[in-house]
Design brief:
Helices cover about 55% and strands about 10% of the residues. The chain is mainly α. It has one domain: Orthogonal Bundle (Arc Repressor Mutant, subunit A). Strands 1-3-2 form a 3-stranded antiparallel sheet. Strand 2 and strand 3 form a beta hairpin. The longest helix has 12 residues.
Amino acid sequence: MHNVVTLRDWLFVKSSKRLLLERLLREPTRSWTRTELARACEQHPKARLDRNLTPLLDAGLLQRTGRRYRLVTGHPLAGRLRELLLALGTEDLPDLG
């Protein structure tokens, strides 16, 4: 397991990126505010999440409606990211289908 943890840390240099994906995938139908996402990523509630959210929004993995964000569960990468996180040791991620 040590090698998997090392690979996970290398792949997700900042744990906040991994935590963001884990939280979104753990509760795939939930809509989140920026403050809720910051707390879920173990960041200060006022933390700037643009570096983490913008690529997900641009890729179509995350949808913004007003001030709320939601995972696009039907996106082709959502299931693959779930599988990757499971392979890297994340537990309790529900099926997206």
